[in-house]
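FORM 12-B: Structure-to-Sequence Request
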């Protein structure tokens, strides 16, 4: 797994984003089994309690399903999967727009830059 934690936000939130990104990129598909909490902690080198917290949050969000104490799997609910994609886009755009405003780049300049580079 290619997870690298940063110091800017809680690790459990970073784990959730990591899983969301894997879903959006198609690296995790609906119904796929994800590593157990202990396996994930070992793989990404974080405390198992942190992974437990992120899995609990993802269960509450409907991103993963867990049957009793069996391993968790990615939801098969397409509405939730689509929402994940748009939530990630929205988060990225919010940060981008705030950064552009902070350096006084107007909307026309932003659109030109996007058109030139995308």
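FORM 12-B RESPONSE
SEQUENCE OUT:
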């Amino acid at each position: 797994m290619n997870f690298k934690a940063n110091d800017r936000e809680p690790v459990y939130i970073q784990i959730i984003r990591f899983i969301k990104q894997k879903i959006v990129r198609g690296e995790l598909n609906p119904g796929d089994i994800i590593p157990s909490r202990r396996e994930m902690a070992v793989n990404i080198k974080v405390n198992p309690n942190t992974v437990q917290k992120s899995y609990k949050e993802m269960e509450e969000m409907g991103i993963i399903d867990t049957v009793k104490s069996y391993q968790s799997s990615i939801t098969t609910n397409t509405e939730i999967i689509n929402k994940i994609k748009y939530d990630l886009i929205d988060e990225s755009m919010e940060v981008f727009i705030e950064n552009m405003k902070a350096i006084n780049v107007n909307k026309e300049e932003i659109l030109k830059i996007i058109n030139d580079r995308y």
